């Protein structure tokens, strides 16, 4: 059994959500489960930003968060980068000190 030791967070525009979710679901060997959250991104705006987002200075985005092994996170990132090369997808990996379930 694998021991999850990191949290991979992906930040991406709504338009890429189905592609990313499908990719994660297609790889149960690395992804045991994940959460998605609606967020608003502040900062660098892209050409895909709507006029309303440009005026407000923030854009609707999504996060996907996965707790998994670091080696699996690296392989998953390499595959995502090859399948969806986009500067609109940001990611970061943080350590997980402990992970478990109540039952």
Explained architecture:
The chain is an alpha+beta fold and 103 residues long. It has one domain: 2-Layer Sandwich (Alpha-Beta Plaits), CATH 3.30.70.120. 28% of the residues lie in helices and 32% in strands. The chain has helices spanning 17-25, 51-56, 70-83; strands at 6-13, 35-42, 58-68, 90-95. It has a 4-stranded antiparallel beta sheet. The longest helix is centred in the last third of the chain and has 14 residues, at 70-83.
Q: Layout of helices and strands, plus pairs?
A:
Elements: E1 6-13, H1 17-25, E2 35-42, H2 51-56, E3 58-68, H3 70-83, E4 90-95
Antiparallel strand pairs: 1-3, 1-4, 2-3
CATH topology (fold) name = Alpha-Beta Plaits
CATH class: Alpha Beta
Spatial order of strands in the largest sheet: 2-3-1-4
| Low-pLDDT regions | none
Strand content: 25-35%
Order of helical and strand elements: EHEHEHE
Q: Strand tally, please?
A: 4
Q: Just name the CATH architecture.
A: 2-Layer Sandwich
Features:
103 residues, alpha+beta, Alpha-Beta Plaits, four-stranded antiparallel beta sheet, 3 helices, 32% strand, globular
Provide a short characterization of the protein structure.
This protein is of the alpha+beta class. It has helices spanning 17-25, 51-56, 70-83, and strands at 6-13, 35-42, 58-68, 90-95. It has one domain: Alpha-Beta Plaits (2-Layer Sandwich), CATH 3.30.70.
């Amino acid at each position: 059994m694998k021991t999850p030791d990191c949290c991979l967070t992906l930040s991406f525009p709504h338009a890429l959500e189905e592609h990313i979710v499908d990719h994660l679901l297609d790889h149960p060997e690395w992804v045991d489960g994940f959460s998605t959250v609606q967020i608003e991104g502040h900062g660098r705006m892209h050409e895909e930003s709507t006029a309303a987002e440009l005026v407000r200075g923030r854009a609707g985005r999504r996060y996907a968060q996965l707790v998994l092994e670091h080696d699996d996170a690296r392989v998953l990132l390499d595959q995502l980068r090859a399948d969806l090369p986009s500067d609109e997808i940001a990611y970061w990996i943080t350590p997980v000190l402990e992970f478990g379930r109540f039952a």
